[in-house]
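> call design_seq(struct)
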């Protein structure tokens, strides 16, 4: 995994694509900074002239008067300076916003592309809420930091440099006093920043943990209410928020120390400059106008340094967020070395050959697994929890690759095929039916984006769900809500079967498709599933053994091994593990 020390340099990869807008923004900000630094000097010219004129008038010097033309010229110059400052400020913000928002769009696009390439194992190890936080709050933190901080940093640095040049021009002695305070201010800020950075990193991680916790608890809110876990959940949330409060306080307090420290340094410089400058004015070595300009320049140097320190918290949060974003972007893509192509649709012949697999090193789950499945066969997989049923499906779908051995489909080692092309040959109906926010028609067409309306209706009829759809308000155009809770679980299951039918896959995977519905809907779903499985190789995971009695092969798994294999009748006749499992479900009927 790549680990760059400076993630902001990596961010330049996105900004440089819009360097035209970026450099124009910087140029306009330079213009604004120059106009800002000229302000005390121009005002000083007017003040010096007015002071001299008033002194001449007070002394009754012949012809003494206010030099109005000169003052008017200075005021016009001051107005032109102000106009240039406003144009530079507005223009720089406009072009910077354009560059930042387009760069952040590209960053989000890369995250979206990356998420489709990351192995499934990555998502098994990370909370969904934490991942969501990286896509939303972390990206937004970076966007805000760029938007708020970049031009302010440019402006602060330019203002410091230009103001220092002006004070050197006005008076070297006073300038040395101001310049001596700059490194003191810088190193003080750096020391405090170094101390506070770990707290900002911990704060970002804790925020991700809180996002994950909230997402999980909102998703399972009904279950929390059912088991009376509200107080326990609230207590866990309090612990997380207490940790977030603690690290947030440390981060804010440590970085907040900078302001009093820097104010003390700048106030000291201000006091010394006022004292020494006043003595030079009295000695006639410095004009009153230049003295007031000098005092303003002290402020123009100290204020940008304070601005930079104020931005430290934003930049630290942005760095922590960028670390989390690039952790995702740096994840290794799924291995997909394509050496063979599917020049024809699969027939559905599947072969597991000496397959070994383990999720965790030194903890084997599947060992020396062998299985031959002919085209069109229905293979049922049963066994206790943790036996490896879902793992077999994960391997078949290449969500994980085998540790050793091979899985062959129509004579192709699936590791040599394109994952995308290979998975197009599959249809899945899962226990947790997934539908997205949109119309029923759009959800069904998800299985085949080129399907016509007539094909959608035919698939719905075959899945025994057409009549139900037509009873809904809007029929096929009815909008599903975000949780698809405006239809029942069984109806969602029928819709997913219709979606799979529309995809016309060669191999089917049915994972506990009837485990959460009542008996009437189970019969309806079984009928739809039977239609779906016609002429297709099917792998069915089921706890309800009533759904697999017609299977060509039933595999009984335990600890990743096939302990029994056969059809329903032969396994019952063997009176082994399958027989005990069957009788435990149908004992009452048997009596």
């Amino acid at each position: 995994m790549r680990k760059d020390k400076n993630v902001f340099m990596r961010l330049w990869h996105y900004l440089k694509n819009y360097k035209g807008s970026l450099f124009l923004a910087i140029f306009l900000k330079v213009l604004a900074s120059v106009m800002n630094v000229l302000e005390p000097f121009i005002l000083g010219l007017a003040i010096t002239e007015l002071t001299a004129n008033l002194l001449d008038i007070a002394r009754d010097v012949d012809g003494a008067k206010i030099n109005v033309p000169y003052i008017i010229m200075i005021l016009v110059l001051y107005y032109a300076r102000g106009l240039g400052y406003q144009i530079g400020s507005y223009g720089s913000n406009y072009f910077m916003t354009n560059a930042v928002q387009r760069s952040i769009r590209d960053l989000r696009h890369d995250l979206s592309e990356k998420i489709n390439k990351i192995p499934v194992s990555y998502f098994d190890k990370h909370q969904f809420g934490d991942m969501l936080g990286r896509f939303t709050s972390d990206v937004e933190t970076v966007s805000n930091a760029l938007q708020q901080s970049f031009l302010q940093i440019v402006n602060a640095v330019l203002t410091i440099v230009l103001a220092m040049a002006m004070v050197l021009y006005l008076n070297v002695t006073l300038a040395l006093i101001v310049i001596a305070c700059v490194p003191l201010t810088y190193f003080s800020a750096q020391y405090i920043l170094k101390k506070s950075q770990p707290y900002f990193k911990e704060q970002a991680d804790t925020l991700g943990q809180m996002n994950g916790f909230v997402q999980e608890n909102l998703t399972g809110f009904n279950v929390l209410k059912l088991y009376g876990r509200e107080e326990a959940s609230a207590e866990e949330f309090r612990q997380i928020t207490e940790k977030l409060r603690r690290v947030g306080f440390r981060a804010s307090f440590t970085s907040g120390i900078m302001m009093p420290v820097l104010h003390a340094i700048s106030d000291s410089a201000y006091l010394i400059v006022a004292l020494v400058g006043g003595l030079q004015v009295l000695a006639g070595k410095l004009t009153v106008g230049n003295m007031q300009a000098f005092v303003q320049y002290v402020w123009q140097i100290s204020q940008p340094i304070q601005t930079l320190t104020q931005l430290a918290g934003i930049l630290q949060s942005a760095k922590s967020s960028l670390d989390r974003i690039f952790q995702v972007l740096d994840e290794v893509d799924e291995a997909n070395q394509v050496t063979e192509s599917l020049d024809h649709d699969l027939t559905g012949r599947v072969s597991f050959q000496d397959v070994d697999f383990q999720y965790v090193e030194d903890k084997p789950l599947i060992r020396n697994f062998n299985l031959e499945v002919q085209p069109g066969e229905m293979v049922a997989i049963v066994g206790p929890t943790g036996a490896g049923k879902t793992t077999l499906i994960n391997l078949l779908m290449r969500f994980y690759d085998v540790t050793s051995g091979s899985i062959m489909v129509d004579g192709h080692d699936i590791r040599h095929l394109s994952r995308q092309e290979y998975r197009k040959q599959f249809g899945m109906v899962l226990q947790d039916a997934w539908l997205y926010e949109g119309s029923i028609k759009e959800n069904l067409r998800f299985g085949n984006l080129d399907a016509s309306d007539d094909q959608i209706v035919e698939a719905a009829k075959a899945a025994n769900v057409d009549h139900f759809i037509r009873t809904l308000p809007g029929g096929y155009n009815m909008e599903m809500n975000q949780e698809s809770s405006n239809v029942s679980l069984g109806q969602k299951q029928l819709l997913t079967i219709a979606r799979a039918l529309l995809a016309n896959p060669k191999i089917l995977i049915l994972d506990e498709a009837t485990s959460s519905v009542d008996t009437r809907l189970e019969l309806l779903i079984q009928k739809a599933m039977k239609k779906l499985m016609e002429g297709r190789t099917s792998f069915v995971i089921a706890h309800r053994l009533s759904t697999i009695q017609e299977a060509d092969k039933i595999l009984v798994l335990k600890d990743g091994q096939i302990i029994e294999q056969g059809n329903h009748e032969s396994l019952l006749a063997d009176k082994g593990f399958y027989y005990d499992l069957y009788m435990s479900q149908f004992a009452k009927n048997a009596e």
